[in-house]
Amino acid sequence: MKKIKRLFKRKSIWFLLVLFVFIYVNNSSLFAKRGEGAPLLLAHRGLAQTFSMEGIENDTCTAERINQPEYPYLENTIPSMEAAIKAGADLVEIDVQPTKDHNFVIFHDWTLDCRTNGQGVTRDYTTSELQALDIGYGYTADEGKTFPFRGKGIDLMPTLDEVLNYFPKTSFLIHIKSDDENEGIQMANYLEKLPANRLEQLTVYGGDQPIATLRERLPSLRTMSKATLKKDLIIYMAIGWTGYLPTNLKHGQLHIPEKVAPWLWGWPNRFLKRMDNADTRVIVVGGNGSGFSSGFDTPADIKRLPEDYSGGIWTNRIDKIAPLYNK
């Protein structure tokens, strides 16, 4: 009986040892070839005015707390997108809002009071009414003493159609800011009219309900929502050590908080290689995932990433980050 117990114990130890070696080898970046080339750079809202993230809430008017302007661009405008692309952006993130005449305009807030000389919500105005507003009206860097962009933002709020036509070869990350299922239906109706090669350049993320609608209507479209991100990460943390990836982890997008990333099996190189094989794009954002995400906006921020990191990077300062990678 004692011999049987000793034999069982010895086999258990060997099993655990073999399992440990397998997990280590299968998930170590030491045994994964580093990605070639520079990281994919995502320009958040184009090249735009920056602001302090300290104490920010859902209803904070960020236009009232911008830093001293270093350039003339306003977020989500064609000039800001063009500047970001020229600076070296591989992908540009834009925010969409629905209009009264069933269009989409590119604008961050669902209300107009913070940034513009208008009031109310975007969906109560037609496209022409919104484009007549001054979207630079509310920006101030000195608590309202001066407004450097007032009078300069008229006719700068583009439609989604105008953006996609102006940049026919650019990849965009489209952000649906609400959790309204009807916006998902409206977006699906719009995107279904685009050719397949253009659809491949687009990714849509946002509220759970509109993204669920898009995934059902356009299964080939790259999408992400808070629900899909959480589900995908939980599944990966549970079984990713085996190297197996379920179908729902394929052809998607993951926004990984930098504080969460080191806890993912195989981070960084093995993880990125697995996601590449699954055609899933990985974008690292600042923060721990519990609050508002920040960008990698300075050389010091980039130093927090693993050496030779080759995934995607979220930045508000493409003009500062792209030169670090000779873009």
UniProtKB/TrEMBL annotation:
GO terms for biological process: lipid metabolic process. GO terms for molecular function: phosphoric diester hydrolase activity. SUPFAM superfamilies: PLC-like phosphodiesterases. InterPro entries: GP_PDE_dom, PLC-like_Pdiesterase_TIM-brl. Pfam families: GDPD. Residues 59-325 form the GP-PDE domain. It comes from the Bacteria. This is Glycerophosphoryl diester phosphodiesterase. It comes from Viridibacillus arenosi FSL R5-213.
